[in-house]
Write a structure and sequence with these properties.
nine-stranded antiparallel β-sheet
């Protein structure tokens, strides 16, 4: 069964009386490109095996690199699309009554243990034995999801039409190094008004918001095989080192190391420290 978003299939998924429902497949980029805006009663966990997944809702875009997953709460309209050679696993989850799981859309880091559990869960029968080994696997998955670290890979999308236009302009010309005042004038705002509206709508300064956009664009381009140098030039940096410095400050690691660690997950530490 491929990742499908037909309303009848989603209704069927929502009616299955199990905490976790697996699609029992690995979805491809082609499948993701066929995903129109939709929602479902159960929450969804999309785990990126390879490539980059993008999940878009009304006010934000989440980027999901390899070995990360996006948590989409039930009832939240969204679209999903991929960048590069994409493979992902989709699980639908109806949390128990007292879950300690996210109540908002977010990107989470998938540990080596959780990765193996998700791969195993993708093979579960539709109506697995909740009191048997399969049911215990689902319980451990919920425990692991509750403590999984959340990654700051969200680009807030403002609702004001002028700020939406600014977003489109920045995405169309990410290398444009115009000043805040120049960008403000292009959408018929003063620099002060632009700064105030961004703070109110997305909770960020213009500089931080643009850097966050650059992180999203950079990960998309790097996932397709572009070099750090090429991506730095495309984003308007005078040198690769300037781009790497920005990326490290925003994400915590340089881009090459960040992606390599996700392409080759580190083994778990079995030591006592």
């Amino acid at each position: 069964m491929y990742l499908d978003v037909r309303s009848d299939w989603l209704s069927y998924i929502d009616e299955i009386p199990r905490t976790l429902v697996a699609t029992n497949s690995v979805a491809s980029l082609t499948t993701l490109e066929q995903s129109p805006r939709h929602s479902h009663q159960k929450a969804q966990l999309l785990f990126t095996v390879r490539g980059i997944i993008n999940c878009e809702i009304d006010d934000a875009v989440w980027i999901v690199p390899p070995q990360c997953a996006v948590w989409i709460p039930g009832g939240l309209p969204h679209t999903v699309f991929g960048s590069g050679e994409v493979e992902c696993i989709s699980l639908f989850i109806e949390p128990p009554e007292a879950p300690n799981l996210p109540d908002k859309c977010c990107t989470i880091t998938v540990s080596d243990l959780l990765r193996h559990l998700l791969m195993r869960a993708n093979e579960l029968p539709e109506r697995y034995d909740v009191d048997g080994p399969d049911g215990r696997i689902v319980s451990v998955i919920l425990d692991e999801l509750a403590v999984a670290p959340v990654e700051d890979l969200r680009l807030p999308i403002p609702s004001d039409p002028r700020l939406k236009k600014l977003t489109d302009l920045l995405i169309a010309a990410p290398a444009d190094r115009a000043t805040v005042a120049e960008w403000a004038s292009r959408v018929a705002l003063s620099e002060r008004s632009l700064s105030r509206m961004l703070a109110e709508e997305v909770g960020m300064s213009f500089g931080r918001w643009r850097r966050q956009l650059h992180i999203v664009l950079a990960l998309r381009h790097l996932s397709t095989g572009q070099t750090v140098q090429a991506v730095a030039m495309d984003l308007g940096y005078e040198s690769a080192s300037g781009f790497v410095t920005m990326f490290r400050k925003m994400v915590g690691k340089p881009p090459t190391r960040y992606l390599l660690e996700r392409l080759r997950p580190a083994p778990r530490d079995h030591g006592g420290g």
